[in-house]
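Appendix C: a fully annotated inverse folding record. The material below is reproduced so that readers can follow the format used throughout the book. The structure is listed first as C-alpha cells, followed by the designed sequence.
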C-alpha cells in the first residue's frame, strides 16, 4: 500500500535499505580481511575453515541469501564469486582427507553432483525386406511371427 498523500516521512525516500558497500573495492577489502582473520599467524593453515555463512556474517549481511543477492549486482559479481570459489576450493580439498562426509554435503549444496550421467543415443534402424525375393512359405512364416509378436526362429 502506498503512503498517504502528504506523508512527510516518504519525501526523498527511494525505498529500501542503503547499500552495504558503495563499490567493489570496499567489498573486496572486507573479503580479504575475512580470509586473513581465519588464517593462523604463519599463514600455513586455517584457524577455522572458511564457510559461506561465516563470510556473509563477517561482511555484515544477515544471511547467505543476502550475500547471493548482492552477487547479482554487476559491480560486485566478480569479487563475491571469487570469495565463494575460495570457500568451495577448501571444501574440495577436504575430499582428500579420511572424513569427507561434511565436505560432500557442503559441495552438494554448492550444486555438485555425485552421480554419473550416461548419455545414450539410439539409432533408428529399419530393415527393409524385398518380398519379391522371398518364397511364399517364408512370407507366411514372417507374417505369422509378426502377428504373434515373436521371432522368426
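Designed amino acids, in order:
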Amino acid at each position: 500500500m502506498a503512503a498517504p498523500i502528504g506523508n512527510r516521512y516518504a519525501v526523498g525516500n527511494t525505498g529500501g535499505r542503503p547499500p552495504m558497500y558503495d563499490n567493489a573495492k570496499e567489498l573486496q577489502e572486507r573479503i580479504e580481511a575475512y580470509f586473513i582473520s581465519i588464517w593462523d599467524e604463519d599463514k600455513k593453515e586455517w584457524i577455522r575453515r572458511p564457510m559461506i555463512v561465516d563470510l556473509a556474517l563477517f561482511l555484515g549481511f544477515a544471511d547467505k541469501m543476502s550475500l547471493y543477492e548482492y552477487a547479482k549486482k554487476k559491480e560486485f559479481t566478480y569479487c563475491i564469486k571469487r570469495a565463494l570459489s575460495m570457500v568451495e576450493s577448501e571444501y574440495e580439498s577436504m575430499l582428500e582427507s579420511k572424513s569427507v562426509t561434511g565436505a560432500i554435503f557442503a559441495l552438494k549444496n554448492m550444486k555438485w553432483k555425485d552421480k554419473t550421467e550416461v548419455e545414450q543415443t539410439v539409432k533408428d534402424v529399419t530393415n527393409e525386406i524385398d518380398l519379391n525375393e522371398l518364397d511364399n512359405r517364408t512370407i507366411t512364416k514372417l507374417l505369422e511371427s509378426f502377428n504373434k509378436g515373436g521371432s522368426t526362429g
